[in-house]
Hints:
Blueprint: E1 2-10, E2 16-25, E3 30-34, H1 41-48, E4 56-61, E5 64-65, H2 71-78, E6 81-84, H3 96-106, H4 115-124, H5 140-152, E7 158-162, H6 170-185, E8 189-194, H7 197-201, E9 212-218, E10 221-225
Parallel strand pairs: 3-8, 3-9, 6-7, 7-8
Antiparallel strand pairs: 1-2, 1-4, 4-5, 9-10
Amino acid sequence: MIQLFHLTKVHASGVQVLDNAFFSVPAGAFMVVAGENRAGKSTLLKLLAGEDKPTSGTVRIDQKDIYSLSSRDKQKWLSEVGFIFPDLKLFADKTVEENILFPLRVRGSFAEDQKIPVAKLLERAGLQAQAAHKPSDLSSGELKMAIALRAMVFKPRLLLADDPFLGMDPKSALTLWRLFAELHKSGTTVLISLQRTQDLAAAGETLREISLTMVQLQDGKLTPIEGIA
């Protein structure tokens, strides 16, 4: 379980995006954080990953303060998290398939026979024709999908996705929602931030397959939204 206690974040510019916030993400949850542009959704996700520090307050993972973890324990935690952030890139000198296989290789869990399920994953995502291509050959929507597949391929304990549907057509967005739902069913805790309500609508019937929890981030506070699915 992830818990936030008295979390406040004020950027160097003086903008406050979190104000004494309390928040918990139960293990195995599928949660959406909704908010306007610059509401602090990206900052929240980076705080949960331990990649940013709050002005005050704590983030606890399984009752442990993430900012008190040793470097080794923090790296172990980060190795269990899949990231889909707008500023992430694919390796320019690797093919799409090589990029998606990369997390398995660095974790020492790669085997040649894993290329088969990855090939099937690429096919489901509509990227089978781009598997041997370099990232420079992909459209923006295809790049977003490839980055998402790379974050999911090793079945992380936690998936953090910051506005993952931006730049995607409706068909691709629905495919990604389905992949998120399948990952969630396998045991991954999924936390997605959304700015556009149409991205939630793009999920279609997939929302009926998951127990979705939704919260609103506004004026530094996190409040539950009822009656989503």
